[in-house]
């Protein structure tokens, strides 16, 4: 108490906030100690020893204590201002704290694992959420299949011709094919497809012989004979019931087997996707078609028109795929090229055991615009 009274008020104002608070706490602690009730014996002894002078001094100290406490309130205490004349001392450099090492994820022990047995089996098969499966980085996957791209150095011209063909298709061919599919019953349309497919068997037989496939040539001859007689001109297909495979061969495939493996992609007006090799092949196949040997134009031309409509009707299911493609030209080009490569080199893959295609993909009946469907060909000799 005497030490607190000896500190002047202006000295309390100059103290830092922390020092002032410490002084207040110390003074309050001393005041509480002084005001705490003492045992009866201690109070009696103090009353006996108290003199009038001590009583007067205690009465004078209470107002001074209240005044000192009011002067050192925290919000009124201003921090000490630094001396501008004091020398500047550089703060010691503090090294950058290194980040704590990353701790590896610790899997819960068997005692702490609250998952059921089914959940543990699922995580073992498919991984936990923290270990998401990445199919690209899976080391157990086999190497991706490498498909040779189309040889398309004339792409600028081909794209223009593709737009022309698509305009003709959307304006003429597709509406006719839809009307044909809507009006003609499906059994009758199937008979028309069988009829034109049967007319192509002599060309397939000859090209199979040129490619060194006598067994396939005999099968094509057997299909033509059986369907023409028992199938009533090829409208029905008893040859398929007799397990005679339907394998289509043309002179473009023959040129590929003979060594012309890679050829420039080209899109011809009205014919659609081709290569230079297949364009020459079409010129070689057209004179061999039975349909082109029909001399009466009023019979041959309607049959050729019906053949074109039938081919387009078979392609109607692919329209949704083409319309939704980001690049329709690239889709048509790449799909046609891959299919054509399999038609030419598929037999060799089958012999080597490298082909794993299902049986329905090995069918060569996929429609394309045949060379004999056009009314006029350069091989007609001006007819």
Identify the notable features of this structure and list them briefly.
383 residues, 2 strands, extended, 16 helices, 54% helix, single chain, mainly alpha, two-stranded antiparallel sheet
Element order: H for helix, E for strand: HHHHHHHHHHHHEEHHHH
Query: Stretches where pLDDT falls below 50 for ≥5 residues?
Result: 1-25, 31-50, 102-106
Radius of gyration (Å): 50 Å
Q: In percent, how helical is the residue content?
A: 40-55%
Strand order of the largest sheet: 1-2
* Shape estimate: extended
Note down, in words, how this protein is organized.
By secondary structure, the protein is mainly α. It has a two-stranded antiparallel sheet with strand order 1-2. Strand 1 and strand 2 form a beta hairpin. Helix 9 runs antiparallel to helix 10 and helix 12 crosses helix 13. The N terminus is likely disordered.
Produce a short descriptive summary:
By secondary structure, the chain is mainly alpha-helical. It has 16 helices and two strands.
Secondary structure elements and pairings:
Layout: H1 2-5, H2 9-14, H3 17-35, H4 40-49, H5 52-71, H6 117-126, H7 155-183, H8 186-199, H9 201-210, H10 214-229, H11 238-241, H12 251-257, E1 265-268, E2 272-275, H13 276-285, H14 297-314, H15 319-323, H16 328-352
Antiparallel strand pairs: 1-2
Helix pairs in contact: 7-14, 9-10, 12-13, 12-16
